[in-house]
Every structure is written in structure tokens, then in C-alpha cells.
Amino acid sequence: MSYELKRSIISMLKAWKMDELRKPLLLMGARQVGKTTVLREFGRVSYQNVVYLNFEDTPSLKRLFEDTLKPRVLVNAISLELGVEILPGKSLIIFDEVQECPQALNSLKYFNENANEYHVAAAGSLLGVKLSHVKGFPVGKVDFLHCYPLSFTEFLEAMGEARLIDYMRSISVIEPLPSNLHEKLLQLLKEYLYVGGMPEAVAAFLHKKDFSQVRKIHQAILNAYSLDFSKYAPPQHLMKINQVWDSVSGQLAKENKKFIYSMIRKGARAADFEVALQWLKEAGLIHKVYHITAPKFPLDGYQQFDYFKIYLVDVGLLGAKSNLPANVLLHGNQLFQEFRGSLIENFVAESLVCNQYSLYYWSSEGKAEIDFVLQDEDKIYPLEIKSGESSKKQSLRVYDQKYSPELLIRCSPLNLKQDAKLLNCPLYLIDQLRELLRLNSSIKLYF
């Protein structure tokens, strides 16, 4: 598939290139989120040439790292092996599927210490899993970036809606969007909730608008993940990893989305599945959201490791795992409300992670639950998700009475609006939440 999807991470890669303290880069992310395509496109637009090594497709390349890890010797050997010129600062060297060559991973330390004039970026499938088992991996000697599925904003870009993105980014007053734009964005969001952000699925939808073809791609990706489990997971944990993976949609379909071990197997305990959950997290396939006892600084100091929710890496894959039929797109806001709003919560979770928020949630003795608690600079905000158009805010009210935050955030299909200290952020503006908070902080609030 040719490269057609503009990715915001390219700007981060360009910043990495220009950083005077730049180290070799490890690009993390789940399989098929577009890591290889992103790196090759970045090399194409930012360097004179790209030197590409794939240790899975060409296992013989591993022998280049067997005798020495001295960077200049390696560069010369790679240059001769591939018949390409490698120029400091002008060539991008890509180690792809680097998990297949631990010595190539270890060589990044020496590139950083002894030959940082060479620009090296590495990526691979289940790299997060592999790193925890590579002996001698140089902590502190590499830079990390995370590649995620396309965000809703990137989806809009792919759909040719650049002007709509410019409009959303230019919002300078918290007031309702024109009704025609609001309805258009909601419809585009419905399409995104079905298609998700996996590049192959987005490209297929872009070309043919065929939902059945999109779902076939989702199933193929899910099948590839299952094969990865068999290939990379410790044999003694394989069955449990599959059991946790198969339980995700059922866990999210509950009213209370706290992860329940007994849903996997009657009588199951945390100790039985801790390794499986950690494996899936390190593989980049799930996001884990911990419960906090109080929204105080630092939030991670109040998290409870035994109480958490999990969300899938991509909302389109969640729909596929849940057998969501495409015809729900034709019935009003039904898509927003499917599976007790699990699609919407998953969408918001992955959007917040993509925008570099750490995720937590809060509840109060069965009286209230705040879906996400966010730290933004020196402030902590509660964020409640509403999948329908109801304006009820019981949980936010309980939270407000207990902690009196500067601002309460509700994310819903309703239009942009602020009532006193309650900000309603439309679901389609979740990627702009940080900017809305900045805008809000410049406005004097009357309680």
C-alpha cells in the first residue's frame, strides 16, 4: 500500500532529528499501527537517503552484528552489504523488526556513546515485550517515541477535511459550533468509531467506503495478533494471555467497567493473570487505567494497582471483537450507545493517551464514578463520558462537592458549551481538549 496517510508523529520525528541531545530512537507501538511506514516516510522527506534493514525479512543481516558492535565498523559493513552510502546526519539508518536481533538493539548504546553523528531509528513488533528480556539493554542511551493508530484528527485529514481541522484548531471562544458543522463532525466520528485508526483499515475505507472490507481487515489484524501470541509469548502464559484478550469486550460491556478476574474464569485471582495483563500492556495492545483513592498530586501516588480498567489499542478493533454490525451507523446515535458506551470510552481513552495524558479514574463508595481523572500542568480535572445526549451529571456533582475542582469536564455528543464551571467538550474535539483547557484558564469563571 502506498503511503497516503499524513501522521502527526512525523513532526515529532523531525524534532528528534534536530535535537542537539538526540540519541538513537526506539519507535514503540503495537503491530500494524504504521511504525515502518512512518519511519520510511520520515526518512524520505527529511534525509538524503534511507538505509533500511529488516531483520525478520532478511535474517542474514544479523551476522553483521555478531563479531562487533563498534558503530563505524557496523556502518561500513552495512554500507558494503546493502551497496549504499551512509552519510552522518544525511542518512537515516532504520533497524526494523529489531526484536529479532538483540545485538542490533544493544548496538544503539554504542551509537549514542561513540558515533551519535549517525542517525539511527529502530522499530519492531512487540518491542515492549522484547525489551524487558534483552540482557544489557542500555537504559538512558536511547530516545523513545510511541506510534498509535490514527487519531480522529488524522482520520479527518485522510478524509480530505483539512479545512475542518483548521476550523477546530482555530476555536478561540467556548461556544456552540454551527449546527451544520456539529452534525457533520458527529457523522464523521461515527465512521471513525467503526473504522478505527489502524492505517490499513483507514486506507481501505478511504478508497472504497466499504465497511465490510474494513471489517475483514480488522479480523485479519486480530488474527495476526493471535499468531504473535503464539510466536512471542512465554508458552506457560499463552492460554492466559488469550483468555484476557478474549475477555476485553465483555469487560467493557459491563455497567461498571472495573476489570473482574472472575469474568475470565470462575474463581480466577489476580496472581493468575498478572503476567498475561502485563504482556498485553507491553505489547501495546491494551491501555490500563488505574483507580485512584483521591485526586491529589502526584496522581500515581494514589493509584490502586488492584483496581483498574483496560481499553483496547483501537476502537475499530474493539468493534470487530464485539461483532458490531455496520448498520448501526444508520440509526441515529445508536453507535454512541452500543455496549453501554464502551466504544466511546475506548475512543476517549486512546485519544487521551495519544495526546500524552496519563489515565486514572475515581469512584466513591458506589455513589459516583468519574471515567477519567487528568493532570494538566498544575491542575487536576475530572472527565465524565456521556455516550448519549443526557445532560445528567450526578458523578460530577458528587466529585465537585468533595473536591471543588476549578473545572468539571463532560465529554459527550452534545455541542461545545460551558455552564459555569461545567465544560461540555464534544467527542469530536477530544484531540483539542488541552487547547480548550488553555482557553478556559484565560477566562474568569463565575461559580
The largest sheet is: 8 strands, mixed
Q: What letter string, H or E per element, gives the SSE order?
A: HEHEHEHEHEHHHHHHHEEHHHEEEHEEEH
Number of strands: 13
Proportion of helical residues: 40-55%
Our Rg estimate from Cα atoms comes to: 23 Å
Number of helices: 17
Total domains, how many?
2
Distance between the termini: 54 Å
Strand content is 15-25%
Q: Report strand order across the widest sheet.
A: 7-6-8-9-10-11-13-12
**Poorly predicted runs of 5 or more residues:** none
Shape: globular
Look at the helices and sheets and give the structural class. Answer: alpha/beta
Name the average pLDDT: 93
Structure description:
The protein is 42% helix and 17% strand. The chain has 447 residues and is an alpha/beta fold. It has 2 domains: 9-146, P-loop containing nucleotide triphosphate hydrolases (Rossmann fold, 3-Layer(aba) Sandwich); 152-441, no CATH class. The strands form 2 sheets. Strands 7-6-8-9-10-11-13-12 form an 8-stranded mixed beta sheet. Strands 2-3-4-1-5 form a 5-stranded parallel beta sheet, with helices on both faces. α8 packs across α13 (315-321) and α11 (238-252) crosses α12. The protein starts with 8 loop residues before the first helix and ends in a 6-residue tail after the last helix. The relative contact order is 0.10.
